[in-house]
């Protein structure tokens, strides 16, 4: 899940990096600070460089606080992802003239339609508010957690699209007037910490309730139709006999 950022930073083994390996993880943190982040002065990096010390976790915890990382030392994957994001931003800042006119591979041949087809590409996946909102929606929709929050968001989008039937999509595309809905009167039951995400979750819940109502209506219609067939078999020649 870190390959792209590691490659962007010219890490020596972007495909094989394993943050769960303690020695590799500690060496990686030292490399990241020495080569990319450089938050400490060289003479102040001694404790962080001493990867075999029993006090290294304390030094790393202090380092996270010093760089204002929002994650705890126990949240290793989130921490690595955040530090990589910080390193990429700093790398870009140091070489702004080099990268400002650069174009990603394949982007030169992509048309505007292809760009608009992927609305998630410009999201800041390192933003803690974004991660909290995605996790809240995943819990609401009972989607399994994934290490890559962007993958989770895509799964949410696919699930929502699949729950919208063709009839519902056709109705939604038609211009029609409807009754306004006061979202503030509908209790969500939880708070994601983001007003926009809260509103999106409320809308999803109302849509789900509407689908359930339509399903119940169709079930009732089917029951009535079945009852009409079996109510008086004497009048239904399709049964092939007269009487009960």
UniProtKB/TrEMBL annotation:
Coiled-coil zones: none
InterPro entries for this protein: RTRAF
Origin: domain of life: Eukaryota
Protein family membership: Belongs to the RTRAF family.
Protein name stated in the entry: RNA transcription, translation and transport factor protein
Naturally occurring in which organism (per UniProt): Spizella passerina (Chipping sparrow)
């Amino acid at each position: 899940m870190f390959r792209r950022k590691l490659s962007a930073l010219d890490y020596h083994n972007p495909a094989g990096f394993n943050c769960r390996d303690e020695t590799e993880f500690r060496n990686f943190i030292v490399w990241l600070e020495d080569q990319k982040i450089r938050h400490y002065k060289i003479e102040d990096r001694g404790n962080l460089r001493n990867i075999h010390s029993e006090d290294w976790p304390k030094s790393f915890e202090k380092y996270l606080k010093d760089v204002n990382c929002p994650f705890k030392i126990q949240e290793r994957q989130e921490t690595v992802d955040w530090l990589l994001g910080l390193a990429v931003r700093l790398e870009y800042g140091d070489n702004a003239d080099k990268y400002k006119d650069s174009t990603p591979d394949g982007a030169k041949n992509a048309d505007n339609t292809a760009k608009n087809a992927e609305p998630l590409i410009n999201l800041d996946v390192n933003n803690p508010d974004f991660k909290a909102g995605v996790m809240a929606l995943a819990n609401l929709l009972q989607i399994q957690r994934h290490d890559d929050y962007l993958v989770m968001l895509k799964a949410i989008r696919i699930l929502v699209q699949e729950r919208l039937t063709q009839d519902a999509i056709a109705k939604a595309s038609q211009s029609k007037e409807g009754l306004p809905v006061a979202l503030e009167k509908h209790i969500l039951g939880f708070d994601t910490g983001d007003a926009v995400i809260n509103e999106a979750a409320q809308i999803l819940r109302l849509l789900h309730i509407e689908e359930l109502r339509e399903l119940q209506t169709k079930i009732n219609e089917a029951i009535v139709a079945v009852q009409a067939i079996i109510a008086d078999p004497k009048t239904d020649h399709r049964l092939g006999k007269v009487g009960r």
